[in-house]
Amino acid sequence: MGDLPVQVEGFLVVFARLGAMLMVLPAFSDDGVPGRIRLLVALGISLGLFGMLGPQVPPTGNAVSLAATAFAELLTGLALGVIVRIMFLAITIAGSIISLQTGLTSAVMPDAALGGQLPVIAKLVSVAAVIVCFSLGVHHLWIAAMVNSYLVFPVGGLPPAADFAQLAIATTTRSMELGFSLAAPLVVYGIVFNVALGLAARLAPTIQVFFIAQPLNILLGLALFGATLGAVLMGFAMAMAEWVQQGWV
């Protein structure tokens, strides 16, 4: 029983990093998941990984040292979780571009995670991407990244701000590139459709082209969206898995 306080301190330190990371990871941090469920998931994962990560936690010795170590681990977990979430926003970017190309940007719904409104198609592909990622086991790679983070960021050390800033910038760039590439079929469709619309307006200026083209744009855009949705979701899940396995570089 003499080792109980040391074990409890070690678990609290492990829970600080893993729990903070889970609070901002995609799906786990969604407002649709009750706070108690998120807490239970974080506790369960921390307890399951404590046997592996516990030996890497040095004894703190006193309450002040424990609080400082837990705070440093909290910052590290939040930073790592934010990086993953930035990369996951690629599918939201793709959905927003698809909404723009199909003329459905006005069909919006509130999204508490982003602090504003989001096009319905963007929300649809975001939820679908979570389901596909979970079905393919991509979330297991997120958990593996939690474990591997202890090899890069030892317990108790504050994350280097400059390196994390560079990583955040690089991840944002890659996320935007991935989002645009996933929406590329609809971007090409939008260019072709609008060029054809401009030619039709020049050839027949007396016809109200807009009233004819807008329903046609939505119909053709949704048809192409439905035909490419599976490939978009699989491409995103594979890109996310490859990014995590490459060490976020």
Folded structure, characterized:
The structure is a single chain. The chain has 8 helices and 2 strands. The protein has helices at residues 4-24, 35-53, 63-102, 120-135, 138-152, 161-182, 184-203, 209-245; strands at residues 108-111, 116-119. α3 (63-102) runs parallel beside α7, α3 (63-102) packs antiparallel against α8 (209-245) and α5 crosses α8. It has one domain. It has 249 residues and is mainly α. Helix content is 76%, strand content 3%. The protein has a two-stranded antiparallel ribbon. The mean pLDDT is 83. The protein is elongated and about 85 Å long. The two termini are 44 Å apart.
Keywords:
2 strands, mainly alpha, 249 residues, 8 helices, elongated
Summarize the structure.
The chain is mainly α and 249 residues long.
Write the layout of secondary structure elements.
Blueprint: H1 4-24, H2 35-53, H3 63-102, E1 108-111, E2 116-119, H4 120-135, H5 138-152, H6 161-182, H7 184-203, H8 209-245
Antiparallel strand pairs: 1-2
Helix pairs in contact: 1-2, 1-3, 3-4, 3-6, 3-7, 3-8, 4-8, 5-8, 7-8
The amount of helix comes to over 70%
Assign the structural class, choosing from mainly alpha, mainly beta, alpha/beta, alpha+beta, or little secondary structure: mainly alpha
Given the C-alpha coordinates, what overall shape results? Answer: elongated
Mean pLDDT: 83
